[in-house]
Amino acid sequence: MIRQQVESSSVRSLGYDPANRALEVQFASGAVYRYLDVPARVVEGLAAASSIGGYVARNVRNVYRYRRLG
To answer: Cα(31)–Cα(39) distance, rounded to whole angstroms?
Structure first.
């Protein structure tokens, strides 16, 4: 999955695969997590968020199943 760099102090890059509803988040630490079954509306909210890290913390982390990739 191709991730795009974002301007955030806690998130380095984001990628989304709509066919599989998978969201990849690379955190500033370098760790990459793939969140599963994430609806497109959540990703749209993420794109519009004033704080990407805050949005991930409130609406993605501990809400969707995930796997750590690296």
So the answer is: 22
